[in-house]
């Protein structure tokens, strides 16, 4: 038992009151049994005095459920019993090149989705699951897709559109990438009929897939065809310029992400505001709030940090052991 009071004795005074309040004897607590863990500062058969706390370590692949206060003995009962839960994944799954990862949560049992950019095909599983602190399986691959040779246009030819003009499309030309275009042209005295004037490479297929026919005619639409070609070439140039800009931005994209703040048993991280990529917990503009567990102090003043140009402002939050 633990004595709690101002004095071990008290005196009846002239005014009929006691000189000191009646003390209390507070009961000790038994060391609790922790599933998937153990108490480190008391042996199992010990009795923990009133107002004393316990520390708990979990076995491999488990971690303590977050709590801001320690488990404390209160007159024979524990304020709460620490719990060891399956470990969370501390980071996002590795992103495939030319792809992305969508992972709203990283708790044990949660799933993440892999996706590829337009013009790329996913090779491998599109889903992974967090299992005891690790993401299961291998990261898939995003392979670039190419459109096959579309065949031969009877009484005509197929032209491949480039940023400098149009060229005869031959079977030996390989690796036609996403958004490349072809145009159909008929021989002299023939005109296009019953079909589209061209097609676009979309995810490894020509769209539309059907080809037109070249039928004999006495008034080929030469002027209209020339304007149509010029418009297609201009469009292809714009696509090439946008592709070059995206590639240039891709070299700087690391500045749009901060290093993720690792979730630990002694630190709770809450996203107050999502950044430009809502599926990422550390993209540009993300605002987080951090709370440290008992025995730790935060290295920033107002408990919030914002991801700005690849860095946490005012600094990356950390929970440091209190001295």
TrEMBL record:
Domain annotation Sushi: ranges: 27-86, 87-144, 145-216, 256-321
Disulfide bonds: 292-319
Protein name: Sushi domain-containing protein
Highest taxon of the lineage: Eukaryota
Taxonomic lineage from the root: Eukaryota, Metazoa, Ecdysozoa, Arthropoda, Chelicerata
Key words of the record: Disulfide bond, Glycoprotein, Repeat, Sushi
UniProt organism field: Larinioides sclopetarius
Record Gene3D superfamilies: Complement Module, domain 1
InterPro entries: Compl-Cell_Adhes-Reg, Sushi/SCR/CCP_sf, Sushi_SCR_CCP_dom
UniProt xrefs under PANTHER family: COMPLEMENT COMPONENT-RELATED SUSHI DOMAIN-CONTAINING (PTHR19325), LOCOMOTION-RELATED PROTEIN HIKARU GENKI (PTHR19325:SF575)
């Amino acid at each position: 038992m633990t004595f709690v009071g101002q004095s071990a004795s008290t005196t009846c005074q002239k005014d009929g009151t006691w000189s000191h309040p009646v003390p209390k004897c507070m009961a000790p607590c038994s060391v609790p049994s922790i599933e998937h863990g153990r108490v480190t500062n008391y042996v199992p058969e010990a009795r923990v005095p009133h107002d004393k706390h316990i520390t708990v370590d979990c076995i491999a692949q488990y971690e303590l459920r977050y709590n801001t206060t320690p488990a404390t003995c209160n007159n024979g009962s524990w304020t709460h019993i620490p719990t060891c839960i399956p470990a969370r994944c501390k980071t996002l799954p590795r992103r495939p090149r030319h792809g992305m990862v969508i992972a709203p949560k990283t708790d044990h049992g949660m799933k993440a989705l892999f996706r590829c950019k337009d013009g790329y095909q996913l090779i491998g599983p599109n889903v992974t699951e967090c299992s005891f602190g690790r993401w299961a399986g291998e990261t898939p691959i995003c392979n670039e897709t190419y459109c096959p040779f579309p065949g031969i246009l009877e009484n005509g030819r197929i032209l491949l559109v480039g940023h400098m003009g149009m060229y005869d499309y031959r079977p030996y030309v390989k690796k036609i990438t996403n958004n490349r275009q072809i145009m159909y042209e008929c021989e002299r005295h023939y005109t296009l009929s019953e079909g589209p004037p061209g097609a676009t490479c979309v995810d490894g297929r020509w769209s539309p897939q059907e080809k037109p026919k070249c039928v004999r005619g006495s008034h080929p639409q030469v002027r209209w065809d020339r304007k149509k070609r010029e418009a297609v070439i201009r469009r292809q140039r714009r696509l090439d310029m946008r592709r070059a800009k995206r590639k240039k931005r891709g070299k700087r994209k690391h500045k749009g992400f901060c290093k993720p703040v690792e979730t630990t048993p002694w630190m709770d991280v809450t996203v107050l505001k999502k950044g430009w990529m809502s599926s990422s917990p550390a993209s540009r503009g993300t605002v987080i709030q951090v709370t440290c567990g008992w025995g730790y102090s935060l290295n920033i003043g107002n408990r919030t940090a914002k991801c700005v140009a690849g860095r946490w402002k005012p600094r990356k939050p950390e929970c440091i052991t209190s001295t």
